[in-house]
């Protein structure tokens, strides 16, 4: 009897459903997800290798981009292989430790990426609004400290949430209606009150992504003011073109994340669960897939470096 009670209050495994309501379409859904994951891996690895190899790309903007690329690789690899195992082989069991670890990485990577996007906005602000101090302000040591601060902040914010999940008492319901583990999806299976978890989740979201969005908006407000004060239209277009890639990535990163966050907590039954879960799954694979493409298309320096690398590899084969 004691074993039954122990299992009821501390389950050894959870069951991930995948995309609830669309189980019979899992095989078809897996095909675009697998394709996007492969493109994300290849694109980010090529971009990261290009930045590391090419000395001329060791500039603040590209060093921040390399950190963003690494975070994208970690985010997609933390979630997509498990999703594909559910879709292809119906491997739905996940241990408590693995589930908590996955939730930890998903949330910590999200907060770290958000911090990196703020750093990239600050980089664009200095480059456009104070270009004479660009090299002296954003030295390599300063960049490493900023990136380290983004990681430390994410750990400090996520670890207490993991503790709050572990202290909960769970009942016999072990089914998580999702394709991967995340904080509130696990907490909702608890028998006890999760009010503290809900409040903590909202607080972390406001203190991380919420404040980051405000900083980014202020940075681009100052950038726009400086751009419109430039004397010629050509100079204005050139200045804004350097921000285009970053703005696209910001849109791709925050829009689905905020939609998923607020829908999960306040959406109720207004949005079908399978739509919410499907969008949450797309969030962990679409931005990592598109980010290298966006920067590859908009950055002439990256395009030329990649093309020179490809031509060099072709000449080596011949």
UniProtKB/TrEMBL annotation:
Q: Does the keyword Cell membrane apply?
A: yes
Q: Which UniProt keywords apply?
A: Cell membrane, G-protein coupled receptor, Membrane, Olfaction, Receptor, Sensory transduction, Transducer, Transmembrane, Transmembrane helix
Give the matching InterPro entries. GPCR_Rhodpsn, GPCR_Rhodpsn_7TM, Olfact_rcpt, OR51/52/56-like
Q: Pfam families recorded for this chain?
A: 7tm_4 (PF13853)
Q: Which organism is it from?
A: Apteryx mantelli
Q: Where are the transmembrane segments?
A: 25-49, 61-88, 94-122, 142-166, 198-223, 244-263, 275-297
Q: Where is the G-protein coupled receptors family 1 profile domain?
A: 43-295
Q: What is this protein called?
A: Olfactory receptor
Lineage runs: Eukaryota, Metazoa, Chordata, Craniata, Vertebrata
* Membrane topology value: Multi-pass membrane protein
